[in-house]
Amino acid sequence: MNETHGLGAAALTDISDELLDAVVGGGSIVDPVLCPILGSLSPGVPGVVDIDPTGDTSIAGQPTWDCVPYDG
To answer: I want to staple 11 with a disulfide (CB 3.0 to 4.6 A). Which of 7, 16, 33, 67 is the partner?
Structure first.
């Protein structure tokens, strides 16, 4: 038998998004501090951790943190 136990990647992403929203209120408190730090680390590790100059961050192609200007 080949069973997979535990949570899938999508479920973990959903949980981490919910946790981040609960802890930092959608980023409104943390963004002014975190986004410039992330932006200073641009371009990150291309293809693994992508960071643009505004601080928007994607891990393995999945958007993880959105800084001003917000993408919707």
So the answer is: 7
pTM for this model (two decimals) = 0.60
Q: Contact 51/61 with Cβ under 8 angstroms?
A: no
The tens digit of pLDDT for each residue in 32-50 reads 888 999 999 999 999 999 9
Q: Are 51 and 38 in contact (CB under 8 A)?
A: yes
- CA dihedral sign of residues 16, 52, 24, 70: negative
Rounded distance between C-alpha atoms, residue 65 and residue 18, angstroms: 13
Tokens of 58: 């994607």
Question: How far, in Å, CA of 12 to CA of 18, rounded?
Answer: 10
